[in-house]
Amino acid sequence: MNRILICGSNGLLGQRLAQMLSRKTEYEVLNTSHHRTFVFDHQLFDYTQLDITKKGDVKSLVSSFQPTVILNAAAATNVDWCETHREQAWTINVVGVENLVEAAKRVGAKIIHVSTDYVFDGREGPYAEDDRPNPISYYGKAKLAGENVLRISGIPFGIVRTIVVYGYGIKIKSNFALWVIESLRAGKSIRCVDDQISNPTHVNDLALAMVRIFERQREGVYHVSGSETVSRHEFAVKIAESFRLDSSLIQQIKSSELQQAAPRPLLTGFITLKAETELGIRTMNILEGLTLLKREMESAGRN
Ligand SMILES: NC(=O)c1ccc[n+]([C@@H]2O[C@H](COP(=O)([O-])OP(=O)(O)OC[C@H]3O[C@@H](n4cnc5c(N)ncnc54)[C@H](OP(=O)(O)O)[C@@H]3O)[C@@H](O)[C@H]2O)c1
Question: Which of 28, 148, 178, 289 is in the most buried spot, having the most CB atoms within 10 Å?
């Protein structure tokens, strides 16, 4: 039986992978994250604590579980925090991957990892897999270094790069879509930039791509993002429309007005042809993604 180790199971992507895979009888799934407890019922999901930055712990858990594949959803994902906490960001996003690689080598496991459009400078999106990365933020640099750890590792690996991931999860760090919904529901006005343009991605498409890489025995880099290209401001207006919220609370601004700690690539977006043809994935457009998000929130009693 295939044994799947999921790292970062308490995050948005990790929760989705846990839900998607634990139902499949052909897999034995072990969920892990650096928290002591799992957000889902421990009786329904196998769970153990694992901090990917702790080399010895990673080595002993991987040796005892003997995974066929490691799905790494663990990461430091706050771009501005990474800019100001560089050492910690590097430890999680690069050293953490090194620890997984070293442990995977011993048991012959494959690693499927997640990266970002922030490895590009945003001057000429949409990008294909073989376009030249040139990160402009520390987060982007560390994520590219994490990719390179896998490239030189000699083990079988897959990397899914993705963009502005949204979806509902339990006790997760907020994402752009949830922030817009929660702010507008509270009657708060928000400022959204019209000069950061990309393809927001529903988390289900990302999780499915990781599973397909494993199931179809693929390797290498795949670009997976939603099928529609929008600015953050346009995305926020679409969210307001879908959730019947007051779009007049959304102010249109430029990135320079936000004074964020980390610079953002302005024009990204992905060419997803490789994922479509090799993984058989057709990613959602914004209306489809938001309709699904609405259903997820309704079933969690958050409507
Ligand atoms: N979200 C986006 O818009 C976006 C865009 C492009 C790419 N990505 C990539 O997609 C992947 C998944 O992101 P996501 O949206 O699911 O982010 P997320 O919700 O922040 O999940 C990441 C999870 O990793 C956990 N974690 C942090 N340090 C850890 C450690 N040392 N050991 C084990 N777990 C640790 C985090 O826990 P704590 O939060 O409690 O620390 C969190 O639960 C990441 O690789 C990210 O870089 C995300």
Answer: 289
